[in-house]
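Researcher: Quick one. four chains, 264 residues in total.
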Amino acid sequence: MKYLEKLRNSGLRPTKQRLQICEVLFNTNKTFHFTINDLSEKIKKQTSKKISLATLYNTVHAFEKKGYLKQIPINSSQTYFDTNVTEHHHFYDLKEEKLIDLKNSDVGPINILKKINGKKIKSVEVLVKLED
Amino acid sequence: MKYLEKLRNSGLRPTKQRLQICEVLFNTNKTFHFTINDLSEKIKKQTSKKISLATLYNTVHAFEKKGYLKQIPINSSQTYFDTNVTEHHHFYDLKEEKLIDLKNSDVGPINILKKINGKKIKSVEVLVKLED
DNA sequence: ACACCTTTTTAGAATCATTATAAACTATTC
DNA sequence: GAATAGTTTATAATGATTCTAAAAAGGTGT
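Model:
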């Protein structure tokens, strides 16, 4: 089990549910965006046994804290997560309410000149809103 | 009444409530960030007559649609609005959960090289997350 | 294998921002 | 002033997320 190690090394017990969620999230070379609800649907389709919503929330937040997932800053009724945890940016199609990845080379370097004393920059994220 | 014209020109009837909200939001040379709840508190303090929550939501969204307010894309339990509708960016202090303006000159130009057919760029917003 | 302790899962309830409803009210036009 | 369309309001409804507390499962030592 390739995710067993990963979980254990992060201090997360490799439970059946977490391993299952890992399969759905990470067992692909394509990264993708999802909401908790998307994830719930995906799991329902892939397997017979269900995972409770509370567990999905717990696990996704645990993975986020460990750096395996990123939250995408967007105003939407649901929170979006990204399995692509590298520094990159997004288009948001306002009409279709869909997120599209922007490669880093599509945006170019962003220099933040201002400094706040005692604070470090954790991330720099660009959201480009699209309309028709 | 300086806001009466503004509202009428936008096709919004200048009601008592809307004029009141204009006073609170725009009668200052400093721009600021707020949530619906902040706005509600501010109005309670400034006046005796109260405005219902539903009206605050309606009005703020109407103003946003007209371009008098901007939503700030950030994952928070409450939606943040900005009275500064010029193109600019934000720091978000994760610990204090506070937004700080970044002047455009603090970030420099951002070139979006990728194009999506049939879509126009409506806005480009940078969120810089800060940690200790 | 068993007992022990801690972490995790779970169903369901609770929370809380936001939106919908539908009746009363108000601005505008004629 | 009457008619009409747009607004406001209190309240209910919605829906994503978090909380709760009890049951289940993982890990460790014997």
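Chain B touches chain A at residues 71-75, 79, 91, 93-94, 100, 102-103, 105-108, 110-114, 116, 118-132 (CB under 8 Å).
Researcher: Thanks, that's what I needed.
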